[in-house]
Amino acid sequence: MSTRGWESTLSAFSADVSETAVTSMEKTFSIITIGCKLNQFETEALASSFLAHGFVIVPADQEADAYVINTCTVTSRADHKARSMIRGIAREHPGTPLIVTGCSAQTESEALSALACNIVVVPQSEKSRLLELPLALLRSLDAGKEPGANPRALLDTESAADPFAFAPTDYSFHTRAFLKIQDGCDCRCAYCRVPLARGRSVSLELREVLGRAAALESRGRREIVLTGVNISAWRAGGTGLPGLLRELLRSTSRARIRLTSLEPESLTSELVEVLAEPRICPHFHIPVQSGSDGVLVRMGRRYLSDRVSDGVQRLREARGDPFIAGDFIVGFPGETQEDFQRTRGMVQRLEFAALHVFPFSSRPGTAAASMKPVVPERIRRERARELSALAEELSASYARRWVGREVEVLLEGKTGARPHGVTGNYLKVTVNRVPRDASIPGKVVRAKISGAGRTCSARFLGIAD
Ligand code: SF4
Asked: Ligand 1 centroid to 390 CA: how many Å?
């Protein structure tokens, strides 16, 4: 799984909901998400279920009839964040049901349950049961009951939990539509807790993937983001990810397809051949983790550095100048300065357009937790700073390479009066001179990049077909 999104989306999510005026009759809920795109997608589905039952979303600091925290356990920092949020809400709203779900709820359920009496911990493996929560809450409120008195009674224990029950009809927090195609992982990377939280790898049936994608496209979605824990491991019958992508391109016509991340060992010529298709977004996120073969072996990764270089070269041959991003963990036990220099050299040589750099975080229940020698925290932070500084330079040079070039931008919102959005190759762009009837979130416009930056500027050229 990509380490991306573990931390970066922590705050953004809960902040998206501004102060909401509600009448005394309206039922309200608040939902906070910590972690990756997959967690965000599952939150979209939960929110969609609440909205379908007439609830109104409110920010976490506003009174609500129920609070849900969708947790992450990939780093100790994510665990700490979840606990402080749980304590805060339980203290502020002692009489209101506080549902704690997600990966931390799977691995730390007892500890989290003990934090307050109005908490109901729903482990990740049972998260889909929460899709029934809005109806149960509605019935309880309409019956004049105090749901906070016995929040556990709200949970539907009859229906079988299903990791693919999450199929939002509407998206409250995203313009681009996420589609969960896989969950869990059969790998055992030494630093990773995800298999402990999300179990073995499971894949959504091919027919179901195609049906859901067609439904999203028919509802006007112009981008479908395939997500999972390890989508490279998607498999149904004799078909793997390359076959799935071919079928998806055959059964849809306009939507562009974006992949959340691809394991280095999955960058085979068969996969890269289909990634060369124009409706596949030229944006590839690769959880590389290290540029040192010695460290990769100790991490239990399934490739060496030359395989990464080959994969990146293949992607460039197939797509010209795609946006290639990478995850790197620095300060893994036993990582020497020489190992780190190998990582730095790889990043420089392969010119990643963006990096997500993580100082090693020891996780309970993982092989790396007992590995020696431990790299001092100070060194881990120094190496993370150094690699992040290099990443900044490489991101800036990637954006500069696109000045003067034409792109298609999926509009997502406005900065002041100017619409902003994202290109197929993952550039964040603000577009100038967009006519009013074209500046609508969800529309795709053609534009020419006129200025490079964290957010590039572009000049409107027309509406894309
Ligand atoms: S075990 Fe490895 S491949 Fe699986 S989710 Fe963790 S890091 Fe990714």
From this structure: 25
Is residue 423 domain-shared with residue 386, that is, in the same domain? no
| Number of domains, the chain | 3
User: Any bridge partners for residue 409, and if so which?
Assistant: 423, 445
pLDDT in tens, 120-161: 999 999 999 999 999 888 888 788 777 766 777 777 667 788
Average pLDDT score, the chain? 92
For ligand 1, is residue 185 a contact (CB within 6 Å)? yes
Which atom of ligand 1 is closest in space to residue 1's alpha carbon?
8
Nearest to 16 by CA among 39, 52, 40: 40
448 DSSP 8-state letter:
E
pLDDT above 70 for 282: yes
CB of 288 shorter than 6 A to ligand 1: no
How much is the pTM? 0.92
Beta bridge partners of 410: 422, 444
Ligand 1 neighbourhood includes 74 CB (under 6 angstroms):
no
Q: Quick check: CB of 264 below 6 Å from ligand 1? A: no
Q: Do 392 and 415 sit in the same domain of this protein?
A: no
Q: Which is nearest to 453 in space by CA: 424, 410, 420?
A: 420
Whether pLDDT at 9 is above 60: no
Choosing from 105, 122, 155, the residue where a domain stops is 155
